[in-house]
Write the structure tokens for this entry.
Amino acid sequence: MRLFKILLLASMTAVLASCNGTAKPECNDGHQLWFYSMDQDGMNLSEEKTTMAIAANEVREYWHGEQAVLFNVLETKDDVLGPEGYRLVFGKDAVAVDANTETGILYGTYDLLRRQETGKVLKEGTVTEVPAYQYRVLNHWDNPDLTVERGYAGQSLWKWETLPETVLPVYEEYARANASLGINCTVLNNVNADPVILTPEYLQKVKVLADIFRPYGLKVFLSINFASPKHIGGLKTSDPLDKDVAEWWNKKAAEIYSVIPDFGGFLVKANSEGQSGPQDYGRTHADGANMLAKAVKPFGGIVMWRAFVYDPQAPDRAMQASLEFVPFDGKFDDNVIVQIKNGPIDFQPREPFSPLFGQLENTTVMAEMQITQEYLGHSNHLVYLHPMWKECLDADTYQKGEGSTVRDITTGKLHGRPLNAIAGVANIGDSTNWCGHHFAQANWYAFGRMAWDPELSSEDIADEWIKQTFTDDKDFVDPIKALMLESRENTVRYEMPMGLHHTFSSEGHYGPGPWEGSIRPDWSPKYYHKAGPDGVGFDRTMNGSGNVGQYHEPLASLYGNLETCPEELILWFHHLPWDYKMKSGETLWDTLCHTFQQGIDAAAGYIDTWADVRKFVDEQRWNEVNVKLIRQAKDALWWRDATMVYFQTFSNMPIPEDCSAPQYTFEELSKVRINITNYETPDLDVLPEYEL
Ligand code: GCV
């Protein structure tokens, strides 16, 4: 039986051999990220740690242009540029970087170097850049014990046990990487927050990081545990309307700002997945958020209050955030932002946008994207996520009629709101290549570029990243860019096509487990796919849960009507019989099988594409990616087998002959246990073996 054969021995040997061997000029562990084309000899960071010195050092070390580079911090402030924008003025003998602030100069410097590396330096002309979002935020789900919730790149980057004494070079490298993209905020700890982070001892550790990040324009935030007054403050309650509790938070904020004067504020997960919150005391989300907002307001801080809430009793989890938040629309203080995941469930490979974006008309809202690939193959699968995020930002909510995109709502453009932000859950750990998979670096990169300019295309961002990370040779760039651009849609095809969602095994959200039950109904795949003898899919129409009614017209009708519902979301909104006739004339069953097959074939094709470009890549990165592409192709087969052989127990329909035959039975697959601890990526050798 092939199921647990130790796999990939040959390829692993190749990895080990590569760095001693002579086949390629250099080994490359990927640590240099997108600076690789520029500083192959190692990072030459500035010795002097001021923003201007850092910018000057980058130019001195890495600018190869013939023109001199001039920095101008403008004496008369330019209203267009604001605090972070810049202007690059290209002339024959000089390039001027103009900005109101030193941070603007630094961002302009990184733009200039990016242009150099990607062939976009102008002979003459002016480029003006201003970020679309004011707060461009990474959310780290890192715990004090160094584990990272849903992190697949080793342990936490923050070595709490050796801070504040020991300062690792990687802290500054991290700040530089973020500055090169324009990311200006970082929340250091998990939203499932340990109260210890607010103790004086930990604030001293946080201060060290904040001091290192500051010259790179990067501000520190913390996730807080709502019950901190009880846990570390010695109070009997954490009720937000209790005056001692409010006073405790006021004092705590003052203490934090005395240590970190430019502290950004708090991120809060409250009354969600067991976290404490104002509802524990019969209070509301607005009561909780506003109490914290008042504490940080005197210091210019903000509160990002998450809307990720759901209730095991609710008939449709996709509706819960709106049910809980819409009653408080307009009731939040002006330094509160409600942080909403892109979709209404939980970072699935495809979700419609969360209806809450359209429903909160008088509240500042921001989008939370997931950079770490919790549901998209962890750090084993190559999936370029920008197309998924852009799908959400470009979506039209019709809040104020046509043209009310999630992007324009969250940038503040639609309502003219000054406070605006976007967040991404980081995929960064202490692994040498930062993100676990060399191509996962592209998602950190893409998030940063998108947060600066949400109108950039997925293609342009991929193009930039490839040229800086690998090579600008067209014979490498073109096929790899095509692969990246297709990879998200393809993951949808082989994991959960046509609006299926949450069919994961509960063991780490890695592989399939559509048959699994759970102690909580809404943690069970069956709750979401509702497969049975009569068909499959979640009826969210007005005859079902009514979720379509949370979208503004014409979307409510579009999604609710089978004739008009996009087929890519059809099983998200409708429950359909297995032999339902799709627009193509095929049955639903055959279409599902064919879509999975497309995903399987394309994933296998990545291996060939990667083989074709081998000569452009150093041995180390080539081998490390190759091992993962092989696993990805096998996982695509595993997903199809598990989903369709299980669904077959209801449909009794055959897998079409033009599809590859499943390699395992339902009985065999339902016994697979991959035992993931601490949210890690499972070892390759415990995954089911597949013949490609
Ligand atoms: C940080 C999902 C994840 C959890 C995560 C949660 C959240 O449920 O599986 O690990 O917790 O989302 O976003 O709060």
Observations:
- Residues 2-129 form a domain with the Chitobiase; domain 2 fold (CATH 3.30.379).
- The radius of gyration is 25 Å.
- The chain has three domains: 2-129, 135-461, 492-538+575-686.
